[in-house]
User: Which sequence fits this backbone?
């Protein structure tokens, strides 16, 4: 069975390093890459009435923007490198959603970048990498 | 001419209030008199009693409606309660729809338009006029009202307009028009127009003037008396900045702080009840006894009943139709699911929050009791129960909470200002929806309504409690006349939706999704 690397991608430098790492591995082992972008979202947040009215429209705009501004530019590079790739954009809690989507798409590994917070804020609020390591159902690689 | 004079005077008063408070006070009085004079006929029509009794026909209208819906849908508020909780938790939401408006969000937004001063000030008014017994009738009406809300919110989602750009608009004006047309009934359009007219009046009254008025009362309670026009102008400027200037950040902050304040309010009430746990039995005794005897209040049992029903209707707005506007934005394939979720709205608003206010006022002994008879003492005018410090409205609630926690009046003042503000923002939106339904979506017509809305903030803060509370009640009940009339004709549609949904729920066609997304 060939490896399928789920890459959590948000366009940051760390995410790009994670993507490069995954591409390198996929090439060497003949695997593929699933590029996943999660838009932070809680169904329990509070919105004003006019935000409710426009939510469906805004969601479509946000998805389109993620597709064109985030995914498109790197998609070409990956394809040029000869690794097969698919993209998924989802709403939700970042770590949980990454884990779910990776599982649902048969990924055998999750690769994410390290965002470099080691200070108070990640102690208080936690970090994506931290929660993913705790909950991931497949091996998880964090690229510094 | 007259309005120009008033506007100039308001501006002058705002600038020079420190040096000329007496002048500003007389402006308050003028606005007040003009207001009472021009709206009195409307108020007396809506609240006119059945001939030979003191029972207003409008109260009977709402109670009968809530009873009909309760029976027609087979006690849906009891049977559907746990399913409603399940829906709000997202158990039945498709994870692929994440990022759309969830049931929770629709409910929370609708609630932030309902939970407001009615829960704090309105209950105090009801208790001081109708006695503790009003609480019993308020809870009963709140429970029954859940069925009315279920009916109107299901229809709100079913007949909403979805525009090509992805935005949605819903509410009674849409279901009255489309629902009547679908059933082949005439007159839907006329009802929709009538509803919209009353909706605009209600938005300007209960959603605006009452809020500004009580916010001012609360501020003076903390910082001392000063002319209402000043509060009015300040509020109007901030509201203007949000609804005309598009300052969404203010609205967003309020939306987030309001639920927090509501929780603080309920928790504080629970703590006060816990401290006085030995009196809880007595308080419920007063509520039950007062419900059937009145315990000496003006109008006896009927007086208590009218006050309780009025407050429940005004606070939860069940049957009024407003809530259907906010609820209709939810993303769901099943309109009935939002009906279920909306059941919780009168429950949280009336059965939980209003009852907390009532219990705290009763338990902290704010109402004066004649030791000889055990009945409540009336004030000099004989219109309401005498209170320890002569307080009424929001000041009474404030006194009740402060008697347990001295500093609470500052927290309450902040809560009242925020509740008032978020309610105004919500209702400016509801009123605008009715306005554009009548006058079109053009920018000019929208701007006109928004400016008008701000002007009414100033009027509301200046008028004294009586005329404002009467007018806002009357406008809101007038909406209920039209809405409930329409609901009777449309309820078979809701029944069909309910039956179809329950069948599919039973057959397993509709089932919970594995694990709800966090």
Assistant:
């Amino acid at each position: 069975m060939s490896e399928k690397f789920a890459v959590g991608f948000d366009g940051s430098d760390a995410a790009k390093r994670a993507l490069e790492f995954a591409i390198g591995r996929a090439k060497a082992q003949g695997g593929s890459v699933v590029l996943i972008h999660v838009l932070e979202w809680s169904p329990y947040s509070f919105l004003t009435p006019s935000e409710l009215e426009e939510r469906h429209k805004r969601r479509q705009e946000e998805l389109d923007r993620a597709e064109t501004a985030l995914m498109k530019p790197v998609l070409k590079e990956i394809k040029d490198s000869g690794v097969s790739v698919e993209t998924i954009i989802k709403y939700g809690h970042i770590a949980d959603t990454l884990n779910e989507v990776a599982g649902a798409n048969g990924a055998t590994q999750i690769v994410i970048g390290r965002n470099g917070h080691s200070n108070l804020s990640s102690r208080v609020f936690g970090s994506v990498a931290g929660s993913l390591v705790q909950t991931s159902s497949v091996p998880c690689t964090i690229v510094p | 001419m007259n309005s120009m004079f008033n506007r100039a005077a308001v501006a002058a008063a705002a600038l020079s209030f420190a040096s000329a408070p007496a002048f500003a006070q007389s402006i308050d009085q003028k606005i007040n008199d003009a207001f009472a004079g021009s709206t009195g006929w409307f108020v007396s029509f809506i609240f006119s009693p059945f001939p030979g009794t003191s029972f207003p026909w409008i109260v009977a209208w709402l109670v009968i409606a809530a009873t009909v819906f309760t029976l027609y849908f087979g006690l849906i508020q009891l049977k559907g309660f746990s399913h409603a909780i399940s829906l709000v938790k997202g158990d039945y939401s498709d994870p692929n729809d994440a990022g759309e408006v969830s049931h929770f969000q629709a409910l929370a937004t609708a609630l932030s338009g309902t939970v407001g001063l009615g829960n704090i000030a309105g209950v105090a008014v009801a208790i001081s006029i109708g006695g503790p017994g009003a609480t019993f009738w308020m809870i009963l009406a709140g429970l029954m009202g859940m069925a009315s809300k279920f009916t109107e919110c299901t229809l709100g989602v079913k007949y909403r307009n979805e525009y090509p750009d992805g935005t949605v608009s819903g509410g009674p004006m849409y279901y009255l028009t489309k629902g009547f047309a679908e059933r082949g009934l005439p007159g839907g359009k006329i009802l929709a127009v009538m509803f919209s007219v009353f909706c605009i009046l209600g938005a300007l009254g209960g959603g605006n003037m009452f809020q500004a008025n009580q916010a001012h009362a609360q501020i003076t309670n903390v910082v001392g008396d000063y002319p209402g026009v000043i509060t009015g102008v300040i509020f109007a400027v901030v509201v203007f900045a949000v609804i005309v200037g598009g300052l969404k950040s203010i609205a967003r902050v309020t939306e987030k702080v309001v639920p927090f304040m509501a929780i603080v309010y309920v928790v504080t009430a629970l703590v006060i009840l816990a401290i006085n746990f030995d009196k809880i039995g007595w308080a419920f005794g007063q509520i039950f006894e007062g419900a059937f005897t009145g315990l000496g209040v003006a109008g006896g049992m009927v007086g208590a009943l009218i006050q309780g029903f009025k407050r429940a209707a005004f606070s939860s707005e069940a049957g009024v139709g407003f809530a259907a506007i906010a609820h209709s934005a939810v993303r769901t394939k099943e309109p009935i699911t939002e009906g279920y979720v909306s059941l919780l709205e009168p429950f949280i608003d009336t059965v939980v929050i209003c009852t907390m206010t009532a219990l705290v006022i009763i338990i902290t002994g704010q109402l004066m009791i004649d030791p000889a008879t055990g009945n409540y003492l009336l004030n000099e005018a004989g219109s309401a129960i005498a209170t320890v410090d002569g307080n009424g409205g929001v000041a009474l609630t404030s006194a009740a909470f402060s008697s347990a926690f001295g500093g609470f009046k500052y927290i309450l003042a902040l809560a009242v200002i925020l509740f008032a503000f978020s309610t105004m923002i919500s209702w400016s939106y509801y009123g605008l929806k009715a306005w554009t339904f009548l006058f079109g979506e053009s920018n000019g017509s929208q701007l006109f309504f928004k400016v008008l809305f701000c002007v009414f903030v100033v009027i509301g803060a200046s008028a004294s409690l009586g005329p404002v509370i009467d007018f806002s009640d009357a406008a809101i009940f007038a909406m209920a006349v039209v809405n409930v009339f329409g609901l009777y004709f449309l309820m078979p549609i809701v029944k069909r939706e309910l039956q179809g949904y329950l069948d599919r729920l039973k057959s397993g066609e509709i089932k919970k999704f594995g694990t709800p997304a966090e």
